[in-house]
Amino acid sequence: MKLLIAVVQDKDSNRLIQALGDSHFKTTKLASTGGFLKEGNTTLMIGCEDHEVDKALDLIRDNCSQREQMVAPISPMGGNADSYIPKPVKVEVGGATVFVLPIESFFQF
Amino acid sequence: MKLLIAVVQDKDSNRLIQALGDSHFKTTKLASTGGFLKEGNTTLMIGCEDHEVDKALDLIRDNCSQREQMVAPISPMGGNADSYIPKPVKVEVGGATVFVLPIESFFQF
Amino acid sequence: MKLLIAVVQDKDSNRLIQALGDSHFKTTKLASTGGFLKEGNTTLMIGCEDHEVDKALDLIRDNCSQREQMVAPISPMGGNADSYIPKPVKVEVGGATVFVLPIESFFQF
Ligand code: NI
Ligand code: NI
Ligand code: NI
């Protein structure tokens, strides 16, 4: 058994939890308070057998990888709207940090 | 030293924390947000010496094991109250998942 | 790689997170709900390379050690204010508990 601790973006967490559940992984979601370093992050604890670690990592990679997203900027208020052509901008979203921890023993009561 | 990470039901957590404290275990309670997989769960971190792991596991088992509980169902609103005899139903409550993690070192400042 | 789990007082946590960030440690702040055992505590997860564990421990010690603080007591309401000389009292503040956990593997996506 291993314990995976995954820190992912809030916006990706529900999709990941759904995917993990579909594959019968047991997931516990901890409240991250953000803080200024990790604003908007969620911490998941995933217990899994050794031979399922790669599957779990695949699901995290598939659902949470850092990627670029085009975002339409807000039109400036009071600007010269006629001549203003808003250009979508690229932003980085997503990203996951995963720690795989050895478990000495595991119990369910 | 070991670190026990225990995921238990909210309704069992105060009784368990009390029992752990009475036995001088140091317990930190993390906020679990529930999520749809683990609605109403609490995560506890319990640091303990190797020879006390069994004692801690006993306390978790005693206070949090999955068990059946009889629950009186709510009378249906607007039903024929005279002829309605509510039957208590069995529901599963409690349950605990515990990971025992090895600790490389431990510090108190 | 190691995973440090540090439980510190809320009042020390922002200063510590700032110090860890200045030294390029990656820190995730978990919400502790307090509970009656650990009222006002914050749990931090800090991932770091083996050779940086001592540095991280130094930062935790420097920013969170248990220490005495002089606190001016509140004047008693309706007391004889003229003859009352409030004496500052010593209280214990701070303190940190740190678990250093081995990591089997570590991923960033
Ligand atoms: Ni299997
Ligand atoms: Ni002992
Ligand atoms: Ni280095």
TrEMBL record, chains A, B, C:
Matching Gene3D superfamilies: 3.30.70.120
Q: What is any Pfam family matched here? A: CdAMP_rec
Q: Entry's PANTHER family?
A: CYCLIC DI-AMP RECEPTOR A
Q: What is this protein called?
A: Nitrogen regulatory protein P-II
- Record organism: Cerasibacillus quisquiliarum
